[in-house]
Design a protein that fits this description.
alpha/beta; Rossmann fold; five-stranded parallel β-sheet; 5 helices; 5 strands
Length: 132
């Protein structure tokens, strides 16, 4: 897996275990000008967090095999180089408790699947303009 940054494209780390959703997101986001690094489960996401340069943004599912997105949030926020990386939760979990927990633990935004592609790209743009 190539994790070298592309200076012309913002890099997004996407942790998503549903293959169809991951393929759709990758297609939509690459077409919108992003470079996607995909982790299909929580452990692979953790390995990427440990080895890759901080991305421009993280898209994080809550319900992941091996380690949940809610477990990864504090892990990401405790890494000094990653503390300012925007994190958007993109999940089928619409539980008010989990939304509150995600936002309290360090998520910058929370979107429930199914998602509107235009809304997702608008939110990504907003965070990347803030981060720039």
């Amino acid at each position: 897996m190539n994790t070298a940054p592309h200076p012309d494209k913002p890099t997004l780390l996407m942790a998503e275990d549903e293959e169809d959703t991951a393929s759709l997101l990758k297609f939509l986001l690459e077409r919108a000008g992003y470079r996607i690094v995909h982790a299909p489960d929580g452990l692979q996401a953790q390995q990427l967090i440990d080895t890759m340069a901080p991305p421009s943004l993280v898209l994080l599912d809550i319900m992941l095999p091996h380690m949940s997105g809610l477990q990864l949030l504090p892990y990401i926020r405790n890494k000094p180089d990653w503390q300012r990386v925007p994190i958007i939760m993109l999940t089928a979990d619409s539980s008010e408790h989990d939304i509150q927990q995600a936002l309290a633990t360090g998520a910058n935004d929370y979107m429930v699947k199914p998602f509107n592609p235009r809304e997702l790209t608008a939110r990504l743009s907003r965070f990347l303009k803030i981060a720039a």
